[in-house]
Amino acid sequence: MKVVEPKVEYIDISTTYEGMLRDIERAAEICVASTKRHEPVEDYINNSLINRHHYRPLEFGTAYVEVDFPNGVSLNKEDYTELMFWEQVEQNHWTRIKRSGRYSDYVTTNCRVLQEAWDYINSLYLKELEDVEKGILQITTLSLKPWMEYVKNRWKFTNEHHKRHTFKWEVSRATADSFRTHIMISSLMQSTRYCNFASNKFGNEVSFIKPSWFEHDYDSTPYSAFTPHEHLILRSWKQSEDHYLSGIKLGMQAQHARAMLPLEIRTEFIQCAYEWDWENFFDQRAHNSTMV
Fold first, then answer.
1. pLDDT given for residue 143 in this prediction
2. Are strands 104-110 and 7-11 parallel, antiparallel or unpaired?
3. pTM for the complete prediction?
4. How far does the chain reach from its first CA to its final CA, in angstroms?
């Protein structure tokens, strides 16, 4: 059993297209306690996330683009479809926009917004194909490209764009659960379903976060010196770890054995949001004005 201090790390959000994809990859890998890099990363995102409808990690990819149609929109199918796509993106409440000219917008959004806008346009496209097959329409009015291509072609990062920020926490499961109540902050947590703490990856033991009210350090304090309250907590944690490890040894799956783990187990937890949402988060947490 380990008892560790909580930690927080600020993570720079990439301002490049390739970096945006890596930010998605990093968030997804946190769920399984991995730092693996996939090549090519676009294939990983398409095959392992999008095709399986695992959209949550996409929220950690921040897209900075300039959307402009200075000459209006022609009857060209591709132009018309792309305009519809960006209109869906700009109307989403997770998107932030700054006007950069009469026909141009600096758009900041996350990749889940992009994927869901694409899904919507694609549903219209498929409906029109059905109508063509039924003889209701003779030609289609849509011509759809992958949303990654739209973003790559219009990528532009400027100081005028609204900025997003990412923090990675090492906290207790209870603390992470309370942080997730801030609904305008994207959150992903290490999964006790997929993480087997009885494996070598985790040192064959369970780690717990030291509560703020503990008076003594676990590693350097003789057991007899702990307070009665600390004794009680430590004994319950040790029993939970013993039961968990025994369950795994008996053939239980990690997702079943996790029922024996308490809320103070250590978890890695990543969050991303706009500046205003972080200001609101820290204001509430610093002044203890939240209920959880």
1. 75
2. unpaired
3. 0.90
4. 27
> Which value, in Å, is the radius of gyration of the alpha carbons in the chain?
24
Cis amide linkage into residue 40, ω under 30° from 0: yes
Pick the closest to residue 73 from 143, 147, 161 (CA basis): 143
Cα separation, 186 vs 110, in Å, equals 10
Non-local (6+) Cβ contacts of 174 within 8 A are: 263, 264
Q: Is the dihedral of CA 48, 50, 54, 60 positive or negative?
A: positive
pLDDT at 40: 96
Query: What are 35-50's pLDDT values in tens digits?
Result: 999 999 999 999 999 9
Q: What is the DSSP string of the chain?
A: -EEE--EEEEEPPP-SHHHHHHHHHHHHHHTTT-----SSHHHHIIIIIITTT--GGGGG-EEEEEEE-TT---S-HHHHHHHHHHHHHHHSTT-EEEEEETTEEEEEEEHHHHHHHHHHHHHHHHHHHHHHHTTS-SS-S-----HHHHHHHTB---TTSPPEEEEEEEEEHHHHHHHTT-TTSEEEE--TTT--TTSGGGTTS-EEEPPTT--S-TTTS-GGGS-HHHHHHHHHHHHHHHHHHHHHHTT--HHHHGGG--TTBEEEEEEEEEHHHHHHHHHHHHTT-S--
Q: Give the chain's residues under pLDDT 70.
A: 70-76, 137-141, 288-292
Q: Which pLDDT score is estimated for 115?
A: 98
> For position 124, what pLDDT does the model report?
87
Strands 2-4, 207-209: pairing is parallel
Angle of CA points 123, 127, 128, to nearest 5°: 120
For residues 127 and 144, the answer to whether their CB atoms sit within 8 Å is no
Contacts of 73 (CB under 8 A, 6+ apart): 79, 80, 83
